[in-house]
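User
New here, help please:
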Amino acid sequence: MGSRLDDAVWPVHTDRLVLRRFEAGDVPRIFDYRSQAEVAEWIGGLSTDVDSLAERFGDGSTAVIVEHDGQMIGDLMVKVQDAYAQREVADQAEATEAELGWVFDPAHHGQGLATEAIAALLRICFEELGLRRVVAMCFAANEPSWRVMERLGMRREAHNVKDSLHRDHGWQDGYAYALLAEEWRAQAL
């Protein structure tokens, strides 16, 4: 696979969850919840069948699976990337931040499991991967997603007006959130 996620120790256990690396055999279960209308409404792209979803996941190098009581309940994305930098210092910005994303089975909403999983992911990003910043984006109308970001102490850095084209709803506002490693450490104390 070859991913920065390989630098972390897997699986990761929380009070109620197990986070582990993606395996190709996970795709049918992921398709089960991603194909539900209330989930599909907000994700970046639809997959009409298991094979098209497997193609979208590719080698799974950015994917983390969330399990609760031995059952897969969601998937997380950790896309490690370079921060913006001037050419003279670009090497110091390499692989210093990550974009995060998440999708959870609606059958497990409202139990704090997404918050618990993403909190664990933030710890992995800052402690094990040594990142300095994480970002996450969503449609402004996707309130459950941005509420999780705020519960985890992420800061809304941008409210972009009609910058995001939704396949059913047309041009929508988008939010961008971020959290720095030092902010995360201050919260964790």
Summary: The domain at 4-133 is CATH 3.40.630.30 (Aminopeptidase). The CA atoms of residues 57 and 98 lie 17 Å apart. The mean pLDDT is 95. The longest strand covers residues 155-166.
